[in-house]
Amino acid sequence: MSSEDGTPGTSGNPLRRELPEEVAAQAPAGAGEPGPPAAAPEPGGAPGLTGRQRLVKGLWPPRVSRAQLIVALLLFGLGFGLAVQVASTSDDDGALRGARQEDLVRILDELDDRTQRLEEEKQGLEDQRTELENSSDQAEEARKQTVEKERQLGILAGTVAAQGPGITLTVDDGKGTVESDMLLDAVQELRAAGAEAIQVNGVRIVAGTYLTDVGGGVAVDGNKISSPYRFKVIGKPQDLEPALNIPGGVVQTLEKEQATVTVDRVGKIVVDALRPAKQPDYARSSSR
Amino acid sequence: MIAVLGLVVGVVAGLLVRPEVPAVVEPYLPIAVVAALDAVFGGLRAMLDGIFDDKVFVVSFLSNVVVAALIVFLGDKLGVGAQLSTGVVVVLGIRIFSNAAAIRRHVFRA
What we know:
Largest interface: A-B, 74 and 63 residues
Largest sheet of chain A: 5 strands, antiparallel
Number of strands of chain A: 8
CATH superfamily of the largest domain in chain A: Protein of unknown function DUF881
Oligomer: heterodimer
Structural class of chain B: mainly alpha
Strand content of chain A: 15-25%
Largest sheet of chain B: none
Order of helices and strands of chain A: HHHHHEHEEEEEEHHE
Number of helices of chain B: 4
Strand order of the largest sheet of chain A: 3-2-7-1-8
């Protein structure tokens, strides 16, 4: 891309020179393709020189003239503007730099819409998360309650160990006169006084416990135990001890049988005799 | 040749300097560049036709740039800036294509 200083055309009159330039820019709009190539204007140019020859002649050898310098200056400005524009458009924010006000407003609107949609989505997801957390909290709570209940019921059923304040009751039957019904009385008395967990000589006493007489001792749920009978009882000591010691009560009855009975209040009793949990054969829970 | 050098130097300078485009000029620069391109193609074609004149080139170059910027400015003021600048680019693009076709005929004879 270069320009000639126009020397070939200088012979023509000025009007002649000026017109074709304007025409040159506009005429092809009409004459774009239809006319044969020969139709391209070849007016007042250098005689015999083709465009290609003129181009080569203009390019080489380089000539310094006023016209060349002016055109160079203009082209410098064009190149400069082109490069600056290209550089500014290819900046990271170039897409917005070149945008017009309306476009910017539209882009902003779209961004706002998008933000709103995303906010809504986020809100929904957060609600969902809260819901899930709540339900898992509830499930956790229910599970905890179930465990707690199982523990409480386990104490009653004798499937878990228990500890707490209570008393020990030792019945030393030197003469072998204590029978199962006396021990049963003692157990009943303790239960009536609010005993919560009882074991005797390593056997847990629960709701279904039965006592029988066997030779030389007593069987608790079929486990033979013998004197001395050591009861470990968890309950309120202030209730349990008087309940045993009331006149005509358990202690007096046993002492009448020549047995030595001691009752001690203890701050911490551990009832650790266990019995296996048994699935009832016939009874089923009627709840739910 | 000098003119080609001028263009190359301009591009290199623009890339190296990377000046911050003033906000006032910013909307008009692209259109002005396209208009200048149109003028350059017109000038090149005139040269190939052997009717090139530097004065005409300078005047058409500057007037192209000014008029293009003016149209965009007016369009912005009227609130149809986007459409008007599109129109200007289309018109200038058509002229560039037709000039390029003429140049092609000269250079390639086809």
